Amino acid sequence: xxxxxxxxxxxxxxxxxxxxxxxxxxxxxxxxxxxxxxxxxxxxxxxxxxxxxxxxxxxxxxxxxxxxxxxxxxxxxxxxxxxxxxxxxxxxxxxxxxxxxxxxxxxxxxxxxxxxxxxxxxxxxxxxxxxxxxxxxxxxxxxxxxxxxxxxxxxxxxxxxxxxxxxxxxxxxxxxxxxxxxxxxxxxxxxxxxxxxxxxxxxxxxxxxxxxxxxxxxxxxxxxxxxxxxxxxxxxxxxxxxxxxxxxxxxxxxxxxxxxxxxxxxxxxxxxxxxxxxxx
Length: 280
Known about the structure:
Blueprint: E1 2-3, H1 11-22, H2 27-34, H3 38-46, E2 49-50, H4 53-63, H5 67-71, H6 87-101, H7 104-116, H8 131-142, H9 148-156, H10 159-162, H11 174-183, H12 193-205, H13 208-228, H14 231-253, H15 259-279
Antiparallel strand pairs: 1-2
Helix pairs in contact: 1-3, 2-3, 6-7, 6-8, 7-9, 8-9, 8-13, 9-11, 9-13, 11-13, 12-14, 13-14, 13-15, 14-15
């Protein structure tokens, strides 16, 4: 730990204190996590000393931020929002469109998904989980995708995996159920993850409709992972996207009716991943 020399502002100390308090941690808890004394943490926050590089990295991991968030002055901050659209408005839009286009599976799927996800929230937020499948459905419709089974599967893609439902419970036809089956994956462990995920994505890539739903799902999850996932999970998510999604996008590109969607989804997925890589 080195003595601070002629530092005009206690930038690092102030950032450490603000991040610690925002996470409702005491100096003792931070000290225990970093294996230092609480007096050391206190001296950092007062600006008497600054943490060594290895401690800065451990602080960043503890607070789930970048090192620059601790070490750099941030005189300007942007207001952010977790949700862009009202989920009830999206539900009305999807149901109205489904009625006009006679998308019978979608009409049933919307109400089923709303009930199945009731009470669930998006990670690290108070946003109702149903916002996510509705976002997928609206995204597809905005690209001109009006296939009943695809929109229905967008609505139902997480209910088997997250809501304790079975495929037989779903109020849709066999084509929509098959899409949901393909995009639903079993729990993995460190030992079997690579094998299971490879088989999982190979199965999706063989089905254009499932590839479309999964790419829509990844687009929405990429837009929310900055606040919904830990930094470690974000790194894994980026790696997974780089490894598996080119095959899904190729499936879409090779499917004539999905050519336009393939172009847009490729742009959206790859540009968001590149932004995260540069910022991290």
